[in-house]
Design a protein that fits this description.
Largest sheet: 8 strands, mixed
Number of helices: 5
Number of strands: 10
Helix content: 25-40%
Shape: globular
Structural class: alpha/beta
Distance between the termini: 16 Å
CATH class: Alpha Beta
Low-confidence stretches: none
CATH architecture: 3-Layer(aba) Sandwich
CATH superfamily: Dihydrofolate Reductase, subunit A
Length: about 190
């Protein structure tokens, strides 16, 4: 069975966005882009909430075509255009979307069906609302976290309304980047 891995930047105090969804505090540089690029390059499915998907759709399909595009923009744009995208949304329609599946109802059944399909791990990018819904359904199998050296004090937390304890096993990948961000990987321990 495929696993869903939640990929998030977060503050030291556990927030994944500011109170109004701000991400201006996130540290990203070429070193982080290279690390992320290696892992997602193997992936064939990306999972998003509607807001994150719409933000990605506005930028990534053509980002690599711009004359001043960086190597990261070129590579990520190619990946984004070809990867299968799953979007959690009760308001979007699937009509005319390329390589995209909309999941609006029967969340647990639909996501478990996707997890049963052949393929690599499913990466859940950002999308705090979608992440919260998947956590409540017990559908996330791991966390790939980039802890930024900042305390926000308020914002959108990674873990919200968690009903039961979630036992995690830390995976050996721990990396500190030059910009001060620390990469941590956890696997959900199923009983």
């Amino acid at each position: 069975m495929r696993k869903i891995i939640s990929f998030m930047h977060m503050s030291l105090d556990g927030f994944v966005a500011g109170p109004n969804g701000e991400l201006d505090w996130v540290n990203v540089d070429q070193e982080i882009f290279d690390c992320v690029g290696k892992r997602i390059g193997r992936g064939d499915t990306a999972l998003y909430g509607r807001v994150t998907y719409e933000m990605m759709e506005r930028y990534w399909p053509t980002a690599g075509d711009k004359p001043a595009a960086t190597n990261h923009e070129i590579e990520h744009s190619k990946w984004y255009k070809n990867v299968h995208k799953v979007v959690l949304s009760k308001t979007m329609e699937n009509a005319g979307l390329t390589h995209t599946t909309i999941v609006g109802e029967n969340l647990s059944d639909r996501i478990n069906g996707i997890k049963q399909q052949e393929g690599e791990e499913i990466l859940l990018f950002g999308s705090p609302t979608a992440t919260h819904a998947l956590i409540q359904q017990g559908l996330i199998d791991g966390y790939w976290l980039f802890v930024n050296p900042i305390i926000l004090g308020q914002g959108i937390p990674l873990f919200l309304n968690v009903k039961d304890r979630i036992q995690l096993k830390r995976l050996p990948v721990i990396r500190q980047f030059t910009c001060g961000v620390i990469e941590l990987n956890f696997e959900v321990v199923r009983q």
